[in-house]
Amino acid sequence: MNASVDLLRLLALPVLGWAAVRDLRTRRVANRTWLPLVALGGALLAWEAWTIWHGGLDAERRLFVVRVAVSVGVIAPLGTLFWWLGAFGGADAKALAAVCLCFPTPPSYLLPTSPSLVLPFTTVSGAFAVTILTNAALVGAVYPLSLTARNALAGRITTTMAVGRPISWERIPAIHGRLLGRANGLDAGLDLDALRMYLAWRNTSLAALRAAPAEGRDPESLPTEPNAPGDGRIDAATDGGPRHGDSRATEPVRDATASDRESVQNSADSWGAAAFCDDVDDAYGATPANLRTALDHLTTAESVWISPGIPFLVPLFGGLCLALAYGDLLYAGLALLGVL
């Protein structure tokens, strides 16, 4: 055990905690956030490897290699795989890789006030990243269970009661998540960040579209010079429409020529959905078809079902803290049940 390495690993906690809070509030974490963690994890891993290789027994060396191979070579790439499959966001994958690099082996901490007590309290065997990941999965399961209970108590017994909840349309522009498809009677859902991009692109708001939906559907109502759509982040100063004072909202994406307008009119592009998707390279998977149906629903319904979603970075941070303080929740639970 290298006490100095284990103590220095704790420097990653405030960074990961800050990133988890920011991801929960804004769904945005800058790439530069992970650079200090990668540097810290790489340096501590090299230090620990040098210490074990020059002072450890053969069995300790073999165990160290296995633990690092599982953490860095198996668990960390899983984040990239899940991101590629669409199950993770980019920040989630990077956070998992950073955690695996910073905590590849189980740490051990003596409590100054009680020298006889050692953290984690329960036994942690194998790769520590596996413990963190299983803890994160258990922590993450709390949210859908709470959604299920909340919907059940309200009498909302549906197939989506574990992943979504109804909210008033007024809250849509200022909330993260996804407009559910089946729960709202739609063929497909829509990421609410894509909706905010569309509203910024049109230099309008959801309230304005609801006030005059016929005009909003008319292709001739499209701006001659659409605004830059941004990335869909929430702007607390507006309801999701034009972001005043934001230079990106006043720079045109392209000039809508007469031929462009004629093409839009001839294609009967309701809501200008196709024109938006043509202008924007990536609007979180939005297509003209699901954008149109989502806008049709959002401009008429008083409440809609959304899936708020919790960024995996949040339960990952919770799983890490529990792993450091308590240990392996799954192992302890199975032991309590007499399985182990």
TrEMBL record:
<keyword id="KW-0812">Transmembrane</keyword>
<feature type="transmembrane region" description="Helical">
    <location>
        <begin position="117"/>
        <end position="143"/>
    </location>
</feature>
<feature type="transmembrane region" description="Helical">
    <location>
        <begin position="33"/>
        <end position="52"/>
    </location>
</feature>
<feature type="domain" description="Preflagellin peptidase C-terminal">
    <location>
        <begin position="288"/>
        <end position="329"/>
    </location>
</feature>
<dbReference type="GO" id="GO:0005886">
    <property type="term" value="C:plasma membrane"/>
</dbReference>
<dbReference type="InterPro" id="IPR009655">
    <property type="entry name" value="Preflagellin_peptidase_C"/>
</dbReference>
<feature type="domain" description="Prepilin type IV endopeptidase peptidase">
    <location>
        <begin position="11"/>
        <end position="144"/>
    </location>
</feature>
<keyword id="KW-0472">Membrane</keyword>
<feature type="compositionally biased region" description="Basic and acidic residues">
    <location>
        <begin position="232"/>
        <end position="263"/>
    </location>
</feature>
<dbReference type="Pfam" id="PF01478">
    <property type="entry name" value="Peptidase_A24"/>
</dbReference>
<keyword id="KW-1133">Transmembrane helix</keyword>
<dbReference type="GO" id="GO:0004190">
    <property type="term" value="F:aspartic-type endopeptidase activity"/>
</dbReference>
<dbReference type="InterPro" id="IPR052218">
    <property type="entry name" value="Preflagellin_Peptidase"/>
</dbReference>
<feature type="region of interest" description="Disordered">
    <location>
        <begin position="212"/>
        <end position="264"/>
    </location>
</feature>
<dbReference type="InterPro" id="IPR000045">
    <property type="entry name" value="Prepilin_IV_endopep_pep"/>
</dbReference>
<keyword id="KW-1003">Cell membrane</keyword>
<dbReference type="Pfam" id="PF06847">
    <property type="entry name" value="Arc_PepC_II"/>
</dbReference>
<protein>
    <submittedName>
        <fullName>Peptidase A24B, FlaK domain-containing protein</fullName>
    </submittedName>
</protein>
<feature type="transmembrane region" description="Helical">
    <location>
        <begin position="64"/>
        <end position="85"/>
    </location>
</feature>
<feature type="transmembrane region" description="Helical">
    <location>
        <begin position="312"/>
        <end position="337"/>
    </location>
</feature>
